[in-house]
Amino acid sequence: MKFFIDTANIDDIKEAYDLGILSGVTTNPSLVAKEKGVDFHERLKEITSLVPGSVSAEVIGTSYEEMVEEGRELAKIAPNITVKVPMTLDGLKAVKTFSDENIKTNVTLIFNANQALLAARAGATYVSPFLGRLDDIGQDGLELISQVAQIFAIHEIPTEIIAASIRHPVHVTEAALRGAHIATIPPNVIKGLVKHPLTDQGIEKFLADWEASNKK
Ligand code: E4P
């Protein structure tokens, strides 16, 4: 499973990219809205030049025509832009058009396996099942990852699964075990993945022993 970062914040993206673990970036309108005074297209240009992998940029329009017009403009920003499209009838139609034009797509707001299968058949490059938001309403987000991974494997579907709406490290481990190709993770959760109390204690003990031995 590969790691994407789920943010439009350039400092957080740089920090994660420097760790050598980052294969891509996802943004959404809420994440972009948090970046005050920033031009959306300018920020995308900056991100795409920093990270060589897929950078998802979401369309705002809800009709087929609006999505196609916006998506084509987004795709012109850089070759590594992936157009993020919501899971609707118009969205599926737009995915088909983008697929015919070799524009990569990420179908977002996936909450059941049928939606993922439909998106894949329309030609989506990626589908994004939202784990955390399903958990929030008492459903099992991780079970959805298992179902989609199984269906795609049975039918030899090349669309990649991005585990999205990740809230904590257990989501990351389980998404990997259940066959997600990618997890898109918020910056604070990426930092949390590094931490273990025994690692910290181990470092302290090694340093204390070294100091006590008076070795140079
Ligand atoms: C990523 O593509 C999604 O937009 C994101 O993971 C949603 O996360 P949230 O449910 O925490 O807003």
TrEMBL record:
Compartments in which it is found: Cytoplasm
Active site per UniProt: 84 (schiff-base intermediate with substrate)
Enzyme class: transferase
Pfam families referenced in this protein's UniProt entry, alphabetically: TAL_FSA
PROSITE patterns for this protein: TRANSALDOLASE_1, TRANSALDOLASE_2
Keywords recorded for this protein, A-Z: Cytoplasm, Pentose shunt, Schiff base, Transferase
Reaction equations catalysed: D-sedoheptulose 7-phosphate + D-glyceraldehyde 3-phosphate = D-erythrose 4-phosphate + beta-D-fructose 6-phosphate
Keyword check for Cytoplasm: yes
Pathway stated in the Swiss-Prot or TrEMBL entry: Carbohydrate degradation; pentose phosphate pathway; D-glyceraldehyde 3-phosphate and beta-D-fructose 6-phosphate from D-ribose 5-phosphate and D-xylulose 5-phosphate (non-oxidative stage): step 2/3
EC number: 2.2.1.2
Primary site of residence: cytoplasm
SUPFAM superfamilies in UniProt: Aldolase
Family: Belongs to the transaldolase family. Type 3B subfamily.
Physiological role: Transaldolase is important for the balance of metabolites in the pentose-phosphate pathway.
Official protein name in the record: Probable transaldolase
Annotated source species: Fictibacillus barbaricus
